[in-house]
Write a structure and sequence with these properties.
8-stranded antiparallel beta sheet; transmembrane helix; 29% strand; alpha+beta; 5 helices; Umud Fragment, subunit A; serine-type endopeptidase activity; transmembrane
């Protein structure tokens, strides 16, 4: 009899431990961090198709996106996109002769150097202004960001889908955890 009670208590303790572990894992995944797989080549060479990353979901609940952050957001096609923040609220934006201008100032994009060095014809990024994206857009509106993929010739980004509402941003990411041989922090 005493042995049965002891076995029931041990079973109950294991059950409680497993339930607590599952609850903690669910809270972490839902509120704090979640994995995501890169789907496509729009962020090459920074991110490869199939890279697995950790998305920090709490960063923008207490702060704002920063220029050049890599973010994951809900896109209009009911998919999640991963892109780089280029323009912030209040910014004017222009690309001319493969040079980014924000508020009239030229801005370096060192993460594009690997692609730019391989281009033999044309530019990596076609010329555009915010007015080319939306005739009513002089500056990026409050609460929105302008995002682009690093593989500018093959990226469906703000040049096509428009500016992204910050409420649609799931979080930012910089840690590749799979494939194991490619574990790194990207900038």
């Amino acid at each position: 009899m005493e042995k049965q009670i002891k076995e029931k208590n041990e079973l109950w303790e294991w059950t409680k431990a497993l339930l607590i572990a599952f609850a903690i894992a669910a809270i972490i995944r839902y509120f704090l961090f979640t994995p995501i797989a890169v789907d496509g080549q729009s962020m090459m060479p920074t991110l490869e198709d199939g890279d697995r990353m950790i998305v920090n979901k709490i960063g923008y609940k207490i702060g704002e996106p920063k220029r050049f952050d890599i973010v994951v957001f809900h896109a209009p096609e009911k998919k999640n996109y991963i892109k780089r923040v280029i323009g912030l609220p209040g910014d004017t934006l222009e690309y001319k002769d493969d040079q980014l201008y924000i508020n009239g100032e030229p801005i370096d994009e060192p993460y594009l150097d690997a692609y730019k060095s391989k281009i033999t014809e044309g530019t990596l990024t076609e010329d555009f202004t915010l007015k080319d994206i939306d005739v009513n857009l002089d500056v990026i509106p409050e609460g929105y960001v302008f995002v682009m993929g690093d593989n500018r010739r093959y990226s469906k980004d703000s040049r096509i889908i428009g500016v992204v509402d910050q409420k649609e941003i799931i979080g930012n990411t910089s840690l590749i955890f799979w494939p194991f041989s490619d574990i790194k922090i990207v900038k």
